[in-house]
Amino acid sequence: MRNKRFCLGLLSVTPLLLVGQGLRAQSQAAPTNREFQDNDTSRRELAQFDQFLDSHPEIAEQLRKDPSLAEREQFLKTHPALQTFLQSQPGIRQDLRQDPNAFMRQENTFDRNETRFDNDGRRAQLAEFDRFLDSHPEIAEQLRKDPSLADKEQFLKTHPALQTYLQNQPEIRQDLRQNPEAFMRQENNFDRNDRNEVRLDYDARRAHQTEFNRFLDDHREIAEQVRKDPSLADKDQFLKSHPALGRTSDRIRRPS
User: Fold this and answer.
1) 46-85 pLDDT tens trace
2) Is residue 20 assigned to a domain?
3) From CA 108, how far away is CA 110, in angstroms rounded?
4) Cα distance between residue 146 and residue 149, in whole Å
5) Residue 186 domain-assigned?
6) Per-position DSSP letters for 180-231, written without gaps between them
7) Interior CA angle at 209 toward 207 and 210, to 5°?
8) What is the pLDDT of residues 159-179, one digit of tens each?
9) Mean pLDDT highest for which of 134-143, 169-178, 185-194, 238-247?
10) Last residue of a domain, one of 101, 119, 137
């Protein structure tokens, strides 16, 4: 009887224990959610500060050398853009006050990560904009002279192709609004690099062609057969019976 009463008592207490465990689990989960929110806030702050530093390279260079400058009155007076930015961003100002070195290390890490993660996206944007400018040389010429035109209403009205393009490409429009000179410099660099890549690829193909022609000049029998049937150069049986051609083909890309 005593055992039975004990079991019944235990069963009556068990739900309370489970409820208590559930409440403890919820109370433990709540800080995790706050941590996620804090992480999101910190990431937004770092992104905003990183954008500011990107737009003010002189300030960025000095702060990365000495983060404590962000709290020195004399430095803020001689750099009103930073002073205004920090007044509008009290969270960032507080972080810089509490531990300027730690915050700048976080910003440096954020900047490196964003650069790595954004490279592909940025390259795609620049490639897209470069194609548009190549198709509209008159607009390209004017924007390279004065990038701020991309955000002037009158210029957009008289160039509807650009207006439509920017409406369909909000990220590029935002970049042009935030820092038109920087974005156009990136586009110019991309354009030059893209042309260089084409030239280098052409030079490599030309070198391969020259090497293959020299090989054929030195191997008349192979040359005669390959010129009659170019597909032989990619047939395993033919390459096995002509190992010199196989070795040459491994070193270079065969001309199409």
Assistant:
1) 888 888 998 899 999 999 899 999 989 999 999 999 999 9
2) no
3) 5
4) 6
5) no
6) HHHHHHHHHHHHHHHHHHHHHHHHHHHHHHHHHHHHHHH-HHHHHHHHH-GG
7) 65
8) 999 999 999 888 888 888 888
9) 134-143
10) 119
